[in-house]
Design a protein that fits this description.
Blueprint lengths: L2 H27 L3 H158 L19 E10 L2 E6 L12 E5 L5 E10 L4 E6 L11 E3 L3
Antiparallel strand pairs: 1-2, 1-6, 2-5, 3-4, 3-6, 4-5
Length: 286
């Protein structure tokens, strides 16, 4: 019981005692006072009961208030704990925010580096693409040149084959001519004929040499022709060539006046010299 309640009870008891004393005095002096005293006593008892009820209510209210205060204190402590947790959460969020900001800065730097690297890669890719284009163009040009070279090689090979066949043919003719010359020389010696003053092998005794007329012209009304064989084929000055057309008809004779390595020039004489033109066959032996 609280001191205030005790004080209230003591005062209430004193008041009841005073009332009883007054009632007794009043009862002695006033008729029917006993009834009044009884009523007062009953009223005092009722008041006492009400006071005790009120005291019990106050104690109950006090207990309820204490319980409420304790509950509120617990709620306050819980709120403080929640606030502390919120503060800790805020601190964690701030730390996380700082970490995120740092990571964002690092990621931004990485993105910048990646962007620069991508740009450099694109530039390199463009250069490589241009180089590939240039290389393709160069390759196409090389392929074209290679095709042309192959064609040229084929043509030169064909010409070489033709030249080689002509060389073998001429070598065979030269060997045959040398054989005939040796036989004729031996025959001359057998008949005691020795004519070394005049050059031999210019007319009927010339080695078999074949060529074609490259040029025909008249100089001061004298017909001249150039044949496609020269010193390389043993052509000498004074040698005679028989000129014939494609049908084998005799056109005239070409007497050599000047000789170069791969051609010779001389005067033309004969029954059909007007038919002599480039392409006519010239042979020392018919």
């Amino acid at each position: 019981m609280s001191p205030v309640t005790k004080l209230f009870v003591v005062l209430n008891v004193l008041l009841e005692m005073l009332v009883v004393a007054g009632v007794v005095v009043y009862a002695n002096s006033i008729p029917n006072l006993q009834e009044q005293v009884q009523e007062q006593t009953q009223q005092a008892a009722a008041n006492n009961a009400r006071a005790e009820s009120a005291e019990q209510g106050r104690e109950s209210d006090h207990a309820a208030s204490a319980a409420s205060i304790q509950q509120l204190q617990m709620q306050l402590d819980a709120q403080k704990q929640a606030n502390l947790q919120l503060q800790a959460g805020i601190s964690d969020l701030n730390a996380q925010k700082a970490q995120n900001a740092q990571q964002y800065a690092l990621q931004s730097a990485d993105v910048l580096r990646l962007t620069e690297a991508m740009k450099a890669s694109e530039d390199t890719k463009s250069r490589y693409a241009q180089q590939i284009t240039d290389l393709r163009g160069s390759n196409d040009e090389k392929l074209s040149q290679n095709a042309q070279l192959n064609t040229t090689v084929t043509e030169l090979t064909n010409k070489l084959d033709v030249t080689e066949r002509e060389r073998r043919f001429l070598a065979e003719q030269l060997t045959e001519a040398k054989g005939r010359l040796d036989k004729q020389t031996a025959l001359l010696k057998d008949n005691n004929i020795d004519d070394t003053s005049a050059p031999a092998g210019l007319k009927a005794g010339a080695p078999p040499i074949s060529g074609v007329i490259r040029d025909f012209r008249r100089i001061h009304d004298i017909p001249y022709a150039t044949v496609s064989v020269g010193a390389n084929e043993s052509v000498v000055k004074g040698m005679e060539f028989n000129l014939i057309d494609d049908g084998g008809h005799f056109l005239g004779k070409l007497t050599i006046d000047s000789v170069e390595q791969d051609e010779a020039t001389g005067r033309v004489a004969g029954p059909n010299i007007d038919l002599v033109r480039p392409g006519v066959i010239a042979k020392t032996q018919l």
